[in-house]
Amino acid sequence: MEKRDPYAALRFKEFNIFLIARFALVFGWSMQFVVIEWQVYSLTNDELSLGIIGACEFIPAFFMAPFAGHIVDRKEKRNLFALCIVLFSLISFCLYWITSISVEQSWSKTTILYCIYALVFFGGILRAFFGPTIFSLIALIVPKKVYPNAATWSSSTWKGAAVTGALFGGFLIAWMGVHYTLGLVFLLVIFSLGLVSLIRRKPILNKESQESIKDSLEAGIRFVFTNKVVLGALTLDMVAVLFGGAVAIFAVFAKDVLDVGSEGFGVLNAALSSGSILTMLATTYLPITKNTGKKLLFAAFGFGLAMILFGMSKIFWLSVFALFLAGVFDGISMVIRQTILQLKTPDEMRGRVGAVNSMFVGSSNELGALESGIAAKLFGAPLAVVLGGTATLFTVIIMNARNKKLRALDLTEDLKEHEKERN
Fold first, then answer.
1. For 6, how many CA atoms within 13 A lie in the half-sphere containing its CB?
2. What is the DSSP string of 223-286?
3. What is the rounded distance in angstroms from the CA atom of residue 138 to the CA atom of residue 154?
């Protein structure tokens, strides 16, 4: 039996460049998310305004995703990724400029708030393209044999960047202020753009055809909804993020429930993702391809329990511990989901399937922010989180009973088939 190599994907130079670029980008994006939430809540002192941020990003990300997948499948991936970063840098610069106006108090709070919402909306359009582009690009950088390992490192890099980005975002608000923190975000985005330029252009695997946009979109959606394994994995993550997540209302917990200020706000944001560091170390050495379905169901159930504990806690460090556990389970779930998608998706459909994935999971982050804001307004933040965690548990129980293919999933044979193709 071939010895497992936990660093298989890291032996490819372009994949290392991609990881560093993605870390810088997500680090900056996470900092920006924390700063925007803090700034908006400071301007309004209204939980619903945090939900509106989610709605502004969800609407364009969700409805643009199918068209983004169609475009991604037909375009060169490296250049498309670079273009997305360029446009994101414009958003970061505009936020930096708007906060300088805020400091000078030359615009009203309402005007500044609407400008932030507009930039978040534009960011939602970009989010529709980022997901399928990254998903497709990874498959062109490494061979199929190391897809699971590459998915682990990519997902863990994303989580690790989210950890440090959220943590630094909270602290830098206190140390440097909102304005200069956003300036640092802009520099990080430019740095990631420079790294992406070091990756070579990639071939377009989807051959030109007479297929209409409508038929192309339907093919991608049909593939996901007729594949019970892929659909089950996406559904679990969607429900967990949509109802079980609470990132959008962490500012409420930091200010009104736990009374820990902006520094505590940064710690809460970081804690949810920090468990992924442990996940990264574990999943690079321990195989996730064996009994994959059972591991995914276990991780989703554990995430729901951890979020219920967080919602019930009134002690800051107990809340941090609960979010750390949630991060561990969420990290496992994300690595498994990405591995399933990489191994089960045909090369010519990666953009469209990645787009559907972004509709299920990526957009549910923003819709989940809206749901969290509304639920916190109606029931209070703690009860809203407890109800969301409970909804996650019920979903796992139903999925375990109804989706036998997902429960019995084992990706070991898929890896063997890909190795035969390679040889």
1. 9
2. HHHH-HHHHHHHHHHHHIIIII--GGGHHHIIIIIS--HHHHHHHHHHHHHHHHHHHHHHHHHS
3. 9
Question: Mean pLDDT in the chain?
Answer: 80
Q: Which domains does the chain have, with CATH numbers?
A: 9-197+212-422 (1.20.1250.20)
Phi, psi of 209 (to 5 degrees): -145, 175
Burial class (CB in 10 A: 0-12, 13-18, 19+), 138: buried
Q: Which two tokens stand for residue 308?
A: 């219920």
Bigger pLDDT: 398 or 251?
398
CB atoms within 10 A of CB 201: 10
- Reading phi first (left if > 0) and then psi (alpha if -120 to 50, else beta), residue 291 is in left
Helix (H, G, I), strand (E, B) or coil at 290: coil
pLDDT value of residue 156? 77
- The answer to whether the beta carbons of residues 360 and 227 sit under 8 Å apart is no
Whole-number Å distance between alpha carbons of 391 and 389: 5
Q: What is the pLDDT of residue 206?
A: 63
Identify the burial level of 377 via C-beta atoms within 10 angstroms of its C-beta, where 0-12 means exposed, 13-18 middle and 19 or more buried. middle
pLDDT digits (tens, 9 = 90+) for 96-120: 888 776 555 667 778 888 888 999 9
Q: Which residue has the tokens 């920090």?
A: 274
- Higher-confidence residue of 382 and 221: namely 382
Give residue-wise pLDDT tens across range 206-249: 655 556 666 766 777 788 777 888 888 888 877 777 776 677 67
- Whether 335 contacts 283, CB under 8 Å: yes
Residues 7 and 316: their CA atoms lie apart, in Å, by: 36
Give CA–CA dist 397/392, Å, rounded. Answer: 9
User: For the chain, what is the largest distance between any 2 Cα atoms, rounded to a whole number of angstroms?
Assistant: 68
Render pLDDT for 160-214 as a digit per residue (tens, 0 to 9): 787 788 778 878 888 888 888 899 999 999 999 999 999 999 887 665 555 666 6
- Closest CA relative to residue 279, chosen from 229, 335, 355, 223: 335
Tokens of 383: 């009860």
Q: Which amino acid is at 159?
A: K
H/E element, 100: helix 77-104
Work out the burial of residue 234: count CB atoms within 10 Å of its CB; fewer than 13 is exposed, 13-18 middle, 19 or more buried. buried
